Amino acid sequence: MALKIKEIIVVEGKDDTVAVQRAVEADTIETNGSAINEETIERIKLAKETRGVIILTDPDFPGEKIRKTIAEHVPGCKHAFLPKQLALSKKGKGVGVEYASVEAIRQALEHVYEEVTEWKEEITLDDLIAAGLIGGALAKARRQRLGQLLKIGYTNGKQLHKRLQMFRISKAAFHDALQQVLQEEKGND
């Protein structure tokens, strides 16, 4: 039996809708690209008020741009993230929700984060610098792995700080994930 999702899932296009509906029973709103028009924003606002919204965009630059645009215009949405390596085309060209397996999409939707605006900062920029997540040769790889472990997607350093706050990632959860990243690094030497 398919998992039924109460919220409306915002995706980028028709192929994403098909992929999501293979994985779960859900309604979608398609943005049809990163230039989201006013009408689509209004539909997302209505959806958020009536049923709630989960944003599930491609794990790439345009997908992040869409996610940011929606979050800006419709605060308080929920977010689901697909790790990039689980959203790659079998042909090697392209990345997107439409290429993800049923299992990967279900996993992403089981680990949804709710956006909050008022939250006391638990993890500072200094913490991120000290952890080697900003600056340094391993920073990008560490952020990538940390994003996977915390299920918040890949970010640059500044975005990571904001996303950790936005999704109320506790210092303990951050620390545990960071320890795992550092352990894996040692194992790869």
Pick out its properties.
189 residues; metal ion binding; alpha/beta; 8 helices; single chain; Dna Topoisomerase Vi A Subunit, Chain: A, domain 2; two-stranded parallel sheet; 5-stranded mixed beta sheet; 2 domains; 7 strands; EC 3.1.26.8; endonuclease
CATH uppermost class of the largest domain: Alpha Beta
Q: Give the DSSP E fraction (strand runs of 2 or more residues).
A: 5-15%
In the predicted model, the low-confidence regions spanning at least 5 consecutive residues are: none
Mean pLDDT: 90
Q: In which range does the helix fraction lie?
A: 40-55%
Based on Cα principal axes, name the global outline. globular
The first-to-last residue Cα distance is 44 Å
Q: What does the largest sheet look like? A: 5 strands, mixed
Structural class: alpha/beta
The Rg value, from CA coordinates, equals 17 Å
Number of helices: 8
Q: Encode the helix/strand succession as letters.
A: EEHEEHEHEHEHHHH
Function: Required for correct processing of both the 5' and 3' ends of 5S rRNA precursor. Cleaves both sides of a double-stranded region yielding mature 5S rRNA in one step.
EC number: 3.1.26.8
Organism: Anoxybacteroides tepidamans
Domain Toprim: 6-96
Structure, explained:
This protein folds into two domains: 8-110, Dna Topoisomerase Vi A Subunit, Chain: A, domain 2; 125-187, no CATH class. Helix content is 48%, strand content 10%. It contains eight helices and seven strands. It has helices at residues 14-23, 38-50, 61-73, 102-110, 125-130, 139-150, 157-166, 171-188; strands at residues 3-4, 8-11, 24-25, 28-30, 53-55, 78-79, 113-114. The strands form two sheets. The protein has a five-stranded mixed beta sheet, with helices on both faces. Strands 1-3 form a two-stranded parallel sheet. Strand 5 (53-55), helix 3 and strand 6 form a beta-alpha-beta unit. The chain is globular and about 45 Å long. The relative contact order is 0.12. The model has no long low-confidence stretch (mean pLDDT 90). InterPro entries: RNase_M5, RNase_M5_C, TOPRIM_dom, TOPRIM_RNase_M5-like. It catalyses: Endonucleolytic cleavage of RNA, removing 21 and 42 nucleotides, respectively, from the 5'- and 3'-termini of a 5S-rRNA precursor. Keywords: Cytoplasm, Endonuclease, Hydrolase, Magnesium, Metal-binding, Nuclease, Ribosome biogenesis, RNA-binding, rRNA processing, rRNA-binding. It is found in: Cytoplasm.
